[in-house]
Amino acid sequence: MTAPAMNTDLLAYNFNLGTTNFTAHINRDTAEQPLPVVGKSFMHELAREGDVLSAEVIMDKGGEIDAPDDEGRRPLHEAAFFGKLEMVEFLIAMGAVKDAPVHPFGYTALWFAVTRGHFDVAKYLLEKGANVNVADALNGQTLLHITALRGDMKMAGLLIAAGIHTLTEDKQGKTARDSAARGNHRQLESVLLKVMEHHARFAA
What we know:
CATH superfamily of the largest domain: Ankyrin repeat-containing domain
Strand content: under 5%
Mean pLDDT: 84
Oligomer: single chain
Largest sheet: none
CATH topology of the largest domain: Serine Threonine Protein Phosphatase 5, Tetratricopeptide repeat
Shape: elongated
């Protein structure tokens, strides 16, 4: 039997559709049961590529678009990591869990967006209510620590405006200001010092 034309685009990704039995399922009568979960080899890859059109096909066929792998990594994590804003918007609109953690460090979609420098994705996730105060479970560093070490003033401003805790210390007792100093980012270090002083003065 000749596969539907839709499969042509999917095959272009060099997926082994036989391993997921995707072709067999896509050829079924749509009145049957929904598609089973399509694993990381497929849905996660669509998220990495930012292929919203194919993701919509999966959703329309009843497929799972927010399934985690064994580490808890979901398509939303992949889309955020690679800066695919349109895919992030689609997944959030379809009910993807914003703050789902990746084990064992607890990284979220926002974590990946910020640490990879994807400002627009980070801004969108924060607007949708993502937790800005996520921290690395191993070393205790926050998103502001990492942003300060990189010297990213624009991202730091976004995080501060979103209410990140500027006084938080990592497991070595270092604040984000210390990270800025370590990276020799003097202007950002000065800004963080002023913000920290303000937060310390007016903290409840």
